[in-house]
């Protein structure tokens, strides 16, 4: 098995670090701003910045009529609906259960990509996905969390699983418009669609928030999560999906927990246990196997069948 890190791999690793830090940043910001208003403002700001960016770089962000459905679905599955299921699910179950269930996104991505005939998954990649999943479980358990499974948590667990499936669906669905448009154009419109969908659900708390009394630190947290955590990170992320595939890109999500633990150790002085270290190693091995384990090319040609005509601009 030959390991070759491309420029895309390195950029995705940068995104992983940004998102790992975003957990702490958002947690700090939500001390003063409720979750749904925080998410709504974050993605509305991100949508505005993305539209300005794409207009300056590519001109008017025009999307063909036949592609609007797919771009809108990316926004709904990856941002709008996902945020609602994630937040409600987290309120109904434990943080440990939520974290572990969301870590199944690479598994669901592989299933969705295979079912839609966009990618094939090799046995080595399956092993890598399972190893990554096990490594995340080690880290959560070592951090003192309890993997509670009970009827009390069942509803929240189901909603969190749905959130993980939505993440996978967004990654796979995005490949179709990415064959015709740049990742910047796809994300600018899909983020706008997702944030507009989220807005009515966040509106009551949004208008009730005393924004004049929000501290500078909370505003900085919102700015970080909007610009770095959403705009720049999402453009790189979906560009990677267009270049190296959905399954191999989304599996990098499993790197976020160990890096987040490392950041917390440096900034908050948290203890890093041997079991957490083992979990980090297992995750890294799993990511490597999934990323570099070669799957056979599908019998159908790229640009045919359910994928749609034409390779287009990535």
Report what the structure shows.
- The chain has one domain.
- The chain is built from 13 helices and no strands.
- Helix 2 runs antiparallel to helix 3.
- It is globular.
- The two termini are 28 Å apart.
Keywords:
single chain; 314 residues; mainly alpha; 0% strand; globular; disordered C terminus
N-to-C order of helices and strands: HHHHHHHHHHHHH
Specify the structural class: mainly alpha
Helix content: over 70%
Total helices: the number is 13
Largest sheet: none
**Number of β-strand runs:** 0
Measured distance between first and last alpha carbons? 28 Å
The multimeric state of the shown protein is single chain
* Spatial shape: globular
Q: Give the number of domains.
A: 1
Unreliable parts: 297-314
Mean pLDDT across the residues is: 76
Proportion of residues in extended strands: under 5%
Radius of gyration, Cα only, in angstroms?
Answer: 19 Å
How are the secondary structure elements laid out?
Elements: H1 7-29, H2 35-58, H3 68-92, H4 95-102, H5 105-115, H6 123-142, H7 151-173, H8 175-178, H9 183-208, H10 216-244, H11 246-250, H12 256-268, H13 274-292
Helix pairs in contact: 1-10, 1-12, 2-3, 2-9, 2-10, 3-7, 3-9, 4-7, 5-7, 6-13, 9-10, 12-13
In brief:
The protein has 314 residues and is mainly alpha-helical. 73% of the residues lie in helices and 0% in strands.
